[in-house]
Amino acid sequence: MRKYKLFVTFGLLTMSVAVHGQTSTISGVLLDSLTHEGEPYATVRVYKGKKSDKPVAMSVTAIDGKFSQQVTGQGNFLVSFTAMGRKEVLRKVQLTATGGVIDLGQLLVQDDTKQLKGVEVVAQKPLVKMETDKMSYDVQADNDAKTNTVLDMLRKVPMVTVDGQDNISVNGQSSFKVYVDGKPNVMFSSNPSQIFKSMPASAVKSIEVVTNPGAKYDAEGTGGVLNIIMNRVNGKSAVNMNGYNGNLAISAGNKGWRSSGFLSGQQGKLTYSANIMYNAAKSKGTVTEMSRTASDGSRMDYRQKGNTHIPFTMGNLSLGYELDSMSNIGASIGLTSFAMKNDGHPMTTFSGGPYGTGFSYGNEMTMKNKNTSFNGSIDYQRFFNKARTSSLTLSYLFSTTPAENTNLRVYDPLPAGVTIPLKDLYSEAKMRGTEHTVQVDYT
Q1: pLDDT of residue 124
Q2: Higher-confidence residue: 39 or 120?
Q3: In degrees rounded to 5, what are phi and psi of residue 377?
Q4: Distances, alpha carbon 76 to alpha carbons 51, 89, 142, 169, 397, in Å
Q5: How many helices (H) and strands (E) are present in the chain, helices listed first?
Q6: Residue 200 carries which DSSP code?
Q7: Could you tell me if 44 and 62 are in contact, meaning their C-beta atoms sit under 8 angstroms apart?
Q8: Closest Cα partner for 82 from 51, 115, 48?
Q9: How far apart are CA 57 and CA 73, in angstroms?
Q10: Which residue has the higher pLDDT, 279 or 18?
Q11: Cα Rg for the chain, rounded, in angstroms?
Q12: Is 209:158 a contact under the CB 8 Å cutoff?
């Protein structure tokens, strides 16, 4: 019997106008009750009033057990700390309209050594999962994923640091590679901060931090690998049922708009999934000012009022076909396009010292950067036992990354009596990188 399911969700023009309460910060450190060592990567959940299925804020403790969780609102809140094999720690806090920092101090956690006659699991899935060679952060289990970007979520991921200028470091190093669904993505690796700033976190299922890359990852000389697992159906189903499902979403605000679409389904032995997203971020009238005073008393002042437009597009199509009960073949093709345009009219003023009353000059400035990545892959997988614990995978990956950068500066006429060798500038650079990867994995 055929069953078709179609779920279409429209969030048409959901304006980003919301009234937020005062923000407070709950901080402290979670320690082992015996050794007083920090409890790393414990899940922190904040509930409004009493414990429920949906916390209002979530995060994890740092490697030294410290935590700092921002909470918006006022009233009574309940803070929960959970970790595998540990007793849950609960603390009640009251947040006021004035906000501020609430320091819970040192919290001690103990082993959960209760002997159970029967087993009844009543728990919530942890945000962080530690494995031998990697750490996984469950993005979809975090409520903030509904409204934040991927860059916002990376600030919560252990072993990943995002500074005030949105620079990313993995395991303490700024040199790292980015994989998407286990496959290298050259464009993501070359400009991860800007791309993650444009991607909605709802498009990502989990983020894996591979700190000890093996032969499967080409990460020699890097601090590690960020593997972004996209939030889409993988084409495998325990039930042989034909059908399809999809959704569309559009949102807009004063900083731009974005849209996304998703479709997946199964027809017999063929499975498929496709998704596309577009984000148009913009900022107008951004002012940049800089001053510098030299030892001779001269001063330089720089001021620019400019506009920035950052369109971002990403799409992917994946196909899978089950050849028989022990083997399957898959193929995928993807496109990622990122561009940035800056324009403005900067003014530079020199005064004091040898410049006397001073002078100014300005120029019309336009900079454009465009990076595109095309990638395709085909995989063949063969299992050698019914338990599917032993397999051989043959993979071929092709990627090409054309890029184009242009820079235009047209200077205003100089004031009378000022002679500076300023010349109009136009530069254009085109680059392309192409990779072919053949890989054999035996498990």
Answers
A1: 61
A2: 39
A3: -150, 155
A4: 11, 17, 21, 36, 53
A5: 3, 25
A6: B
A7: no
A8: 51
A9: 11
A10: 279
A11: 27
A12: yes
Number of neighbours of residue 111 by Cβ within 10 angstroms: 11
pLDDT for 187: 63
- Could you tell me which residues are beta bridge partners of residue 401? 433
What is the predicted pLDDT for the residue at 301? 94
Q: How far apart are CA 45 and CA 58, in angstroms?
A: 5
3-class secondary structure, 216: coil
Give the pairing of strands 391-411 and 425-442. antiparallel
Mean pLDDT of the 69-88 span? 89
Q: Residue 254's pLDDT is what?
A: 85
Q: Could you give the CA distance from residue 407 to residue 185 in angstroms, rounded to a whole number?
A: 27
Asked if 326 and 364 touch (Cβ cutoff 8 Å), the reply is: no
3-class DSSP state of 158:
coil
pLDDT in tens, 133-153: 788 899 988 888 888 888 999
Which of these, 70, 79, 75, 78, lies nearest to 96 by C-alpha position? 75
Buried b (16+ CB within 10 A) or exposed e, 28-55: bbbbeeeeeebbbbbbbbbbbeeeeeeb
Q: pLDDT per residue over 153-188, tens digit each?
A: 999 898 888 888 888 988 888 888 888 777 776 667
Structure tokens at 341: 């345009």
* Cα dihedral 247, 248, 252, 258 sign: positive
The partner residues of 318 in beta bridges, in order of sequence, read 273, 332
Task: Find the Cα–Cα–Cα–Cα dihedral 114, 120, 122, 128, rounded to 10°.
Answer: 70
* Cβ-proximal residues to 156 (8 Å cutoff; 6+ apart), any chain: 59, 60, 127, 137, 142, 144
Percentage of the chain exceeding pLDDT 90: 30
Query: Per-residue pLDDT for 391 more than 60?
Result: yes
Spatial CB neighbours of 144, under 8 Å, sequence gap ≥ 6: 57, 58, 152, 153, 156, 201
89 vs 129: CA distance, rounded Å? 19
Residue 193 φ then ψ, to 5°: -60, -50
Does residue 2 carry a pLDDT above 50? no
For 27-80, the DSSP string reads EEEEEETTT--B-TT-EEEEEESS--SS-SEEEE--TTSEEEEEEES-EEEEEE
Quote the mean pLDDT of the chain: 82
Whether the model clears a pTM of 0.70, i.e. scores above it, the answer is no
User: How far is Cα 362 from Cα 302, in angstroms, rounded to an integer?
Assistant: 10
CB atoms within 10 A of CB 65: 22
Is-contact 160 173, C-beta < 8 A? no
Is it the case that residue 16 has pLDDT exceeding 60?
no
